[in-house]
Amino acid sequence: MKTTHPSQTNPLDLASIRDQLHLQILAALTWAALFALTQPAGAQSSYTWNVTSGNWSTPASWTPNTGPGGPLPADSVTLGNTGASSSSNTANNIVDGGFQGTVANLTNNPVSIAPFSYNVTGIPTGQTLTVTNQMLVGGLNEPVGPYLTYAIMTGSGTLMVTAANLAVENYGTAAGANTYANLDLSSLANFVFNNLNGTISIADTTLPQTSGSHNVRAGGNLVLAGVRNFIN
User: If the chain, 232 residues long, is cut into consecutive pieces of 10 residues, what is the mean pLDDT of each piece?
Assistant: First the structure.
C-alpha cells in the first residue's frame, strides 16, 4: 500500500512569507501616516452668501455650498452684494437654530449708491452669532458716490465678537471720494465685544486694508444694540 504524507513547507519559505507580510504592513502604515499628514487639521473654508432669503444652516445659501449645518467655527464668511435686500427692514439672512453659531471671520460689505442695498441679518431669540478672529464691515476703496455699505442686524438674539478687531469703514483714495460703512445694531437686542486686547475701529485709516502712501479718506458708523451692550 502506498502511503502519502502531507507536504511540508520549507522553513526558509515561511520566513520569506513572513518578511513579505511585514513589509506590506509597514508600507500600508506609512502611506496611511503620509495621507493623514496631508489632511489639514481644522481646515478653514471661505463661503459667500448667495440667496435673497435663507438660513445660515442651509448649504445652498452659500457659494460654494457648505456641509450640513452651514459654515464651521474655523470658516470665513462674506455677505456681499449678492442676495442683498432692497429694504433695510427685510432680513435676507437668518442665523437659525440649525447653524452651530460661530465663524472665525465675518466680512459684511455690500456697497451701492442710491437706491441702496442692505444686508439684514436676523438673529432670533436664543441665538448667538459669534465671531472669533476678525469682523469687518466695509473695507472697500470707493470713488465719488456716495458709495455706502449697510450692514444691519435685527432680532432678540446676540452678536458676540471675541475677535481681536471689529472694523467698520470704507475708504477712498481718489480725489472727492465719498464713501462710508454702517453697522446698525439698533434693532438687535444684545451686542457683546469681549476681548481685553481687542479694538473696535471706526473709520480708522491705519487699518491694513487702507495702508499705503495714498491720501486716504475713511468713513464709518456704528450704532449699538437696542437693549444691552457689553464691551470689554
Answer: 50 53 47 39 85 98 98 98 97 98 98 96 98 95 90 98 95 80 98 96 69 62 98 96
| Phi-psi group of 205: left, alpha or beta (phi > 0 → left; psi -120 to 50 → alpha; rest → beta) | alpha
Q: What is the Cα Rg of the chain in Å?
A: 28
Residue 208 three-state SS: helix
The Cα–Cα gap between 27 and 33 comes to 10
- Residue ranges of E strands in the chain: 46-49, 62-63, 76-79, 93-94, 102-108, 119-122, 128-141, 147-161, 165-172, 179-193, 199-202, 217-223, 228-231
